[in-house]
Amino acid sequence: MKATIAPTLRNATATDATAVEALLAAAQLPLVGVRDALESFTVAEDGSRIVGVAGIEECGEDTGYALLRSVAVDPEWRGRELGQALVARAIASAQERGIRSLYLLTTTAEAWFPRFGFAITSRDAVPDEVRASAEFCSACPASATVMVLHLETA
Fold first, then answer.
1. Whole-prediction pTM value?
2. Which residues are paired to 145 by β-bridges?
3. How many CB atoms are located within 10 Å of the residue 154 CB?
4. Residue 66 covered by a domain
């Protein structure tokens, strides 16, 4: 059954962990570190069901670097710009936190992220604090495309 109203975007809470992990697992995205960074995730909720997620994971303390990770939308909601809304909110959140550079790894969406200003970069150009994250070390394959968005902070 297709929903007829737009989902509500809100900050994730600890009670969302199981639903977020189920959505990520269904999208074949890594779960490592999700619970640790969950407070900086945004979820899309349709009624009481989580139908989308996007997360920011800060890398180190006060480094100005973070990962955009765990962007997933329930298949029922794809093609309705929900992913765009989630990523836009995640980028705004990163800016509010003073993040200077936002990185991501993708194996399937390197053509989608440039609409937000992300550009392909090399693993060697990624700061050590980001390369030390579980996403870079083990969760994502070495063949994943690395992208960066340099943010203007107030």
1. 0.89
2. 106
3. 5
4. yes
